[in-house]
């Protein structure tokens, strides 16, 4: 199976036995340096593509959804389907995984607009960064370099760059500009160009 950067493709895979109530995890790539492994409550930034296991048809591609940026979410609190919460636990920044998710941990008997009822799912995931979750005051204080209890775009940029570089991933300025614009769009509720402690603790998310 190949990982093709920013392009969404249909993978080559087969599912011979569907495992009930269990997420099957295959590590595709593990970076040499794993400084922090993800756990419940951590803030994750990842690209992920979803496929129906029965025929390999794609129903979701984060690279083509909305602005195509990697998705931000808090792990283990229901912002993504249960199977992703389980399957992304213990990941390192820079790691790539393939998950096989049974219906009970996906969209269940109801399905959704693009997923038929009782569907086993396959996800390809690339994790870019993992950090303490948005409700952690410790994480806020680490980013708040001038200790004024508000985060500027410069402070957020430095934090993002540090997280990505820990995972061995370097990005150009336009990449960070786009992510920062998205973070401030969803978090800077009063539009003053800063994220206060209160705004930081009310982080909006894209739900899959």
From TrEMBL:
Reaction(s) this enzyme catalyzes, per UniProt:
[protein]-peptidylproline (omega=180) = [protein]-peptidylproline (omega=0)
Its keywords, alphabetically, are: Calcium, Endoplasmic reticulum, Glycoprotein, Isomerase, Metal-binding, Repeat, Rotamase, Signal
Q: Where is the PPIase FKBP-type domain?
A: 41-131
Q: Does the keyword Manganese apply?
A: no
Query: Which parts of the sequence belong to the EF-hand domain?
Result: 131-166
Molecular function terms, GO-annotated: calcium ion binding; peptidyl-prolyl cis-trans isomerase activity
Q: A cellular component term (GO) from this record?
A: endoplasmic reticulum
As recorded in UniProt, its EC number(s) are 5.2.1.8
User: What is this protein's record name?
Assistant: peptidylprolyl isomerase
């Amino acid at each position: 199976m190949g990982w093709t950067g920013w392009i969404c493709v249909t993978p080559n895979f087969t599912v011979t036995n569907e495992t009930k109530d269990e997420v099957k995890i295959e590590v595709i790539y593990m970076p040499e340096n794993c400084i922090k492994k993800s756990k419940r409550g951590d803030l994750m930034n990842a690209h992920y593509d979803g496929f129906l296991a029965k025929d390999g048809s794609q129903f979701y591609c984060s690279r083509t959804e909305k602005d195509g940026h990697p998705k931000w979410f808090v792990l283990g609190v229901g912002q993504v389907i249960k199977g992703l919460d389980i399957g992304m636990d213990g990941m390192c920044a820079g790691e790539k995984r393939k998950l096989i998710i049974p219906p009970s941990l996906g969209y269940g008997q109801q399905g959704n607009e693009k997923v038929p009822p009782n569907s086993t799912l396959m996800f390809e995931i690339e994790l870019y960064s993992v950090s303490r979750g948005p409700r952690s005051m410790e994480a806020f204080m680490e980013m708040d370099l001038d200790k004024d209890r508000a985060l500027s775009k410069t402070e957020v940029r430095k934090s993002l760059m540090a997280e990505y570089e820990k995972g061995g991933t370097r990005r150009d300025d336009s990449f960070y500009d786009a992510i920062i614009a998205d973070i401030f769009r969803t978090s800077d509720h009063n539009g003053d160009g800063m994220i206060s402690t209160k705004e930081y603790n009310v982080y909006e998310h894209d739900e899959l």
